């Protein structure tokens, strides 16, 4: 127990309740402990205070939410209501009362909260900070008041009257000074009890909406056993377990149950897990319970007389005008009896016929059934009429025509339609019902899932693969839909977005600066691997003064024969650009060291996996034996060492000589016929050489990786970087920073591996290692970033950013290499003044060689 001697008062004022006067003189304060004085817990008539000691490490708009989420997770569903939550630069605090079970759970966890990012923070519990007086704010009173107001304003929903709307209940105006979290089962149980026990009001309740409340369990709803609701809306909560949701739904009954937006929807056992409770509900998410399945769509007839629809084809195309004001689903039926075309093929062809001047077109519930591609659309009559009257209900199958393209040609590849697919429509096949796919709502939720507030990145790459878009096709090839999507994102996130990623979306035209105007801080855009053919289709984005742009993987890149020509063309438009296609550009418009350049994006995974695994294993001699299986039986290794240090110690020179003994530097050889000697053949000989080299530490942040060849027979990977040749005794020797360039040739030896038969095994057939002196730029940044960058629990621990600043300052003052600067600072406990004293001491004792300086 740690009793703090605070001797001051504090007063918390409320607009509609008497103030709470806090007096710390008689407070018992606990931190980092698992027990407390039971006598100090004077339940019912006193207030307690919880202080969250985040030390300024949790900031931003989500800080309060993250802390509260951690609190409710820690109390494990025991009832608790934070009152008068106050944010501070280093501490947040709030009041609680009548919550001993919840406090016991906090003490059981040593008064620590684990945040969503995995870090933990300490809390103080201050018992008896204020007396409770009649009329002061009470959570139960506020909940009762909120429910009373909702009883008096019950809604009509889906044609049903008497619907009690508890959606986003925690945001009710009555909870301005109290946190009411229905994700806490204790709080949810209290609310269900209050609803059910109010006989006079509850008899008029015909349904309950509990959408978007963070609910994790339905167990508290057992209060409503035997009650037959018209609607029970549980959408967009946090229900995860198929087994648990089935068990907890057993006592509940409703005509309509809504579960969309819960994580359980995406589990493999859903919806089969609901079979035992289907009899309790007539419809689930707008689908008849007897038809409820993962592949259901309103196209499923199953004897439903309303699902036949009215057929419209070329013979009766004038009848399309009868459906101008229909709000129902319409089906597009494309016969393909031999299944010659995939889903992607069909939509690529179909969207060619869709007009860019009419309504947005969102195909929903696609499936291939009985030799037909089928999907649904609604609320796009002008598009449907265009498809009937102008396109004749036909889809052209395109073919690219070979043509001669001159150097100055600015034309798209010529395309001709060499065959057609004739299709028909089934109009009014099914009425739209709540819970079915609503494209704009789906897009809004997908945007929320794709925004990273920490990095300020809106990642819309492969947008179609976003969770929640399984039953809808988003065609970003359409400028209208792309503009609508980005306008929606711009309004939602505004200037908070710094980087926008739009790769792999089939985009052909990206001149949309007007819809992005609210993203005033946008500095990076990724448009890689789209269908953009010309720079003029992106040039208007230059108004954002972008620092980073990615265009690789687009057809426009093939127009340029040389990298310099391509860079010059892009820089002419984007004059502030510093990074193009993940490669730095110098002020002269040329490439600096090419980092992670790949000739083929298909080599990304192979390169990353190989480089990381190989060099991590190579670092320690005792681990290098594992590399034997990586080399081909007939592999070849050559090593050259051209490292020179004028002021190295005798032991340092001896270590460097190990490389020279196996080096093959032809320029320095006196006897050229012996040039074949240092070429090492075969797996055994190569491993003997590798095992003889010293322990090293690689700085992988300095690695520049080029993959210049990648095909089905050979992959060539070149890595440039620095490593630390480690001294065994730092008292008499020093570490040496050395640069290297290493080229591997890999060949595939086995295919169709792994459970999906998509894996390939590679072997090294040629390994060329060149060791040399690091450049000045490499020396300056080598080992600058330290491995341990986790947030510390101790408020006195220095942040990574501060350490980096101190490292730079010491380097400027002493001209030491980064490795030695870090060592001086670590020995001095990251005190800059003491680090200078350590440095002076080392110099005085001649413990630093000239090679340790820049």
Automatic annotation (TrEMBL):
Residues 606-771 form the NTF2 domain. One of its GO terms (cellular component) is nucleus. One of its GO terms (molecular function) is RNA binding. SUPFAM superfamilies: L domain-like, NTF2-like, UBA-like. One of its GO terms (biological process) is poly(A)+ mRNA export from nucleus. PROSITE patterns: LRR (PS51450), NTF2_DOMAIN (PS50177), TAP_C (PS51281). It comes from the Eukaryota. Residues 801-854 form the TAP-C domain. The keyword Ubl conjugation does not apply. It is found in: Nucleus. Keywords: Leucine-rich repeat, mRNA transport, Nucleus, Repeat, Transport. InterPro entries: Leu-rich_rpt, LRR_dom_sf, NTF2-like_dom_sf, NTF2_dom, Nuclear_transport_factor_2_euk, NXF1/2/3/5-like_LRR, NXF_fam, TAP_C_dom. Belongs to the NXF family. This is Nuclear RNA export factor 2. It comes from Glossina palpalis gambiensis.
């Amino acid at each position: 127990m740690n009793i703090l001697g605070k001797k001051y008062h504090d007063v918390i004022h409320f607009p509609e309740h008497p103030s709470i006067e806090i007096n710390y003189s008689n407070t018992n304060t606990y931190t980092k402990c698992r027990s407390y004085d039971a006598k100090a817990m004077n339940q019912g008539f006193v207030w307690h205070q919880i202080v969250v000691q985040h030390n300024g490490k949790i900031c931003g708009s989500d800080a309060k939410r993250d802390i509260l989420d951690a609190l409710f997770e820690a109390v494990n569903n025991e009832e608790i209501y934070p009152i008068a939550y106050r944010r501070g630069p280093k501490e947040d605090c709030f009041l609680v009362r009548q919550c001993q079970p919840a406090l016991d759970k906090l003490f059981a966890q040593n008064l620590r909260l684990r945040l969503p990012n995995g870090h933990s923070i300490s809390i103080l519990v201050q018992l008896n900070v204020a007396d409770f007086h009649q009329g002061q704010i009470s959570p139960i009173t506020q909940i009762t008041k909120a429910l009373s107001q909702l009883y008096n304003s019950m809604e009509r929903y889906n044609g049903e009257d008497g619907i009690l709307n508890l959606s986003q209940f925690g945001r009710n105006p009555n909870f301005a000074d109290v946190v009411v979290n229905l994700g806490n089962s204790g709080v949810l149980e209290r609310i269900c009890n209050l609803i059910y026990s109010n006989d006079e009001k509850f008899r008029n309740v015909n349904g309950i909406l509990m959408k978007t409340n963070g609910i994790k369990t339905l167990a508290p709803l057992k209060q409503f056993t035997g009650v037959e609701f018209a609607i029970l809306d549980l959408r967009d909560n946090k229900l995860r377990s198929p087994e648990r949701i089935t068990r907890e739904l057993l006592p509940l009954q409703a005509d309509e149950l809504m579960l969309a937006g819960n994580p359980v929807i995406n589990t493999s056992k859903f919806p089969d897990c609901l079979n035992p409770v289907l009899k309790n509900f007539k419809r689930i998410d707008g689908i008849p319970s007897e038809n409820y399945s993962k592949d259901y769509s309103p196209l499923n007839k199953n004897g439903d007389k309303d699902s036949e629809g009215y057929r419209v084809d070329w013979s009766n195309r004038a009848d399309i005008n009868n459906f101008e004001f229909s709000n129902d689903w319409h089906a597009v039926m494309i016969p393909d009896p031999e299944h010659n075309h995939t889903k992607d093929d069909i939509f690529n062809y179909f969207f060619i016929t869709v007009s860019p001047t009419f309504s947005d077109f969102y195909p929903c519930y696609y499936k291939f059934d009985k030799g037909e591609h089928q999907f649904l659309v609604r609320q796009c009559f002008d598009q449907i009429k265009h498809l009937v009257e102008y396109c004749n209900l036909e889809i052209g199958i395109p073919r690219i025509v070979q043509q001669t393209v001159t150097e100055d040609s600015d034309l798209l590849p010529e395309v001709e339609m060499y065959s057609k697919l004739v299709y028909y429509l089934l109009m009014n096949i099914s009425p739209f019902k709540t819970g079915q796919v609503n494209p704009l709502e789906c897009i809004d939720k997908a945007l929320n899932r794709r925004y990273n507030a920490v990095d300020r990145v809106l990642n819309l790459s492969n947008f179609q693969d976003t969770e929640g878009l399984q039953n809808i096709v988003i065609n970003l090839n359409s400028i209208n839909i792309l503009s609508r999507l980005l306008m929606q994102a711009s309004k939602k996130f505004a200037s908070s977005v710094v980087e926008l990623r739009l790769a792999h979306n089939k985009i052909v035209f990206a001149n949309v600066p007007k819809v992005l105007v609210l993203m005033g801080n946008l500095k990076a855009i990724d448009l890689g691997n789209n269908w953009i053919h010309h720079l003029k289709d992106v040039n208007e984005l230059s108004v954002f003064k972008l620092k980073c742009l990615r265009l690789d993987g687009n057809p426009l890149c093939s127009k340029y024969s040389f990298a310099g020509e391509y860079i010059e063309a892009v820089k002419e438009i984007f004059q502030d650009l510093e990074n193009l296609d993940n490669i730095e550009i110098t002020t002269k418009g040329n490439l600096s060291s090419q980092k992670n350049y790949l000739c083929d994006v298909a080599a990304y995974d192979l390169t990353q996996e190989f480089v990381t695994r190989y060099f991590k294993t190579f670092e320690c001699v005792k681990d290098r034996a594992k590399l034997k299986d990586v080399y081909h039986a007939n592999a070849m290794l050559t090593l050259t060492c051209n490292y020179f240090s004028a002021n190295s110690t005798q032991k340092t020179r001896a270590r460097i000589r190990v490389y020279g003994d196996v080096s093959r530097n032809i320029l320095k050889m006196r006897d050229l016929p012996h040039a074949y000697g240092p070429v090492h053949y075969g797996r055994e000989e190569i491993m003997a050489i590798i095992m003889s080299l010293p322990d090293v530490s690689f700085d992988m942040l300095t690695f520049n990786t080029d993959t210049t060849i990648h095909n089905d027979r050979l992959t060539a990977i070149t890595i440039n970087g620095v490593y630390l040749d480690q001294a065994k005794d730092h008292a008499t020797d020093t570490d040496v920073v050395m640069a290297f360039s290493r080229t591997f040739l890999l060949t595939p030896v086995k295919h169709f591996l792994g459970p999906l038969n998509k894996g390939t095994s590679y072997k090294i057939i040629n390994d060329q290692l060149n060791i040399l002196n690091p450049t000045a730029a490499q020396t300056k940044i080598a080992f600058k970033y330290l491995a341990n960058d986790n947030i510390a629990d101790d408020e006195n621990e220095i942040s990574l950013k501060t350490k980096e600043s101190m490292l730079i300052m010491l380097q400027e003052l002493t001209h030491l290499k980064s490795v030695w600067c870090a060592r001086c600072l670590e020995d001095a406990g990251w005190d800059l003044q003491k680090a200078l004293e350590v440095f002076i001491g080392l110099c005085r004792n001649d413990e630093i060689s000239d090679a340790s300086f820049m």
